[in-house]
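Give me the 3D structure for histidine kinase.
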Amino acid sequence: MRTIRNMAGKAVAEIDRAAARWLEGLGQPEENRARDVVRLRVLSIGALAAAAATPVALSPVLPLSLALPVGATGAAALFLSVVAVMSSMTRRPIARPPGISADSLVFDACPGLSLLLDPRGVVTRCGGRDRASFPAALQDACGQRLAELVHVSDRIALVHALDTLRQGADAASAAVRVQGVYSASQGRQFLHLGLEMTAMRGVDGELEAVFAQMRDVSAEEALRREATDRVSEARSAHEAKSRFLAAVSHELRTPLNAILGFSDVLAGEYFGRLETDRQKEYIGLIRQSGAHLLSLVNTMLDMSKIEAGRYQLIAEPFAVDEVVEACRAMLDLQARGKGVTLTARTAKGLGEVVADRRAVKQILINLAGNAVKFTEAGGIVTIDAVRSGSDLVLTVSDTGIGIPADKLEFLGQPFMQVQDDYTRGFEGTGLGLSLVKGLVALHGGRLHISSSAGEGTVVTVTLPADGSGIAAQGEDGEASPVEFPPRLPAAARSTMKDVQDRENDDAAQAKIA
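Predicted structure for histidine kinase (513 residues):
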């Protein structure tokens, strides 16, 4: 008897565990689960008893071979039907607070301040996740026109956005300001808000309501205003620097002309012979220093003109070979003094080109002067001029010190030099390449530099031979402003770069005068 009781207890426990797992899978709350487990236990025991008793009850009517399956099947069907009814009663919908729908939950969960407007712009509903952070006038604006709550100067933009929706648009936006909390230290403040509106239309397409979402963009507006102020300050400082540079350069030329003129008179001994060679040497040094300073002043004047867009190019046909030879002759004495061989080569039948003669000459002088300066004794500097299709190609190559890789991304900036320390062995101000870049840009040309440290540098200037680049720069008859100094992007660590390329505006790399 005890064994039978133990077996029955184990069977009941297994039934209870199976019922509990089934109810847990259906999502039945734990506090109601024990009651339903008891019900399922009773049903299960009843179903077993019915499965045993039904065939016995059917045996007088049916043969035993039919009574057993029919009785067991009927008991199982009844059990499953009752369980199905209990399952449907167990699954209860998720309870929500009375009066709150799914639409309300979504409306109140939207970021910022959510507003529902009628077609006239009157607020009919307020909500939103950040509703409490907005001014009180907007937190409970039901029954008021939204246009009356924003700054008076922003009402036209808001009304225009609403009218756009009424005319058939699906969405519209506006930037408005509303009065914020008054501060004793900062006075009356206004919040900058971004307003996004979406049209809600009926079946016939008529505008029935407008869903509006407001977000506080005061921080973004402050950053935008600060950026605008910074740009204005930078532009003002830039213009002041240009005026200062032009004024100082102009004032320096007057005394320099006197220094050069009187040093020429003294060197020519027009008013008496000099007594010693030391006096002649000193006068020659004065003349040389004055000429160097005048060249620097002229370069600074040209820079300020290019920067301000007032550098006038005079396009005229001229023979390129004459300009190349003039540059070679001008720098030949300096090259021979350093022990450098300076040669010039022009292609046969080069003919004439249309460009600014003075500017082309300045480009070659600066590039060739750089090459001579950075080439040691025994080196070679070559100036080449050829035609390539409709372009004039000028090349200045040398066997000098080249350009270190760590200087590539900084080259082309005014006053930037390859050797920028107190022990550098080459004179110069770092303005030569900047001026060359500006003059090439005014011609609509390209500047390409190939260099390796210790192996030399090749600088190639490509200009339209027919002067079409100059016409494109100022079609209205006036010189178009050129960004000067040209803005250099971060350069890759490479020994070859393109500058002012019309197809690839890479960083400039060249030696600086």
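Confidence is low (pLDDT under 50) at residues 91-97, 420-426, 476-513. Let me know if you want a second pass.
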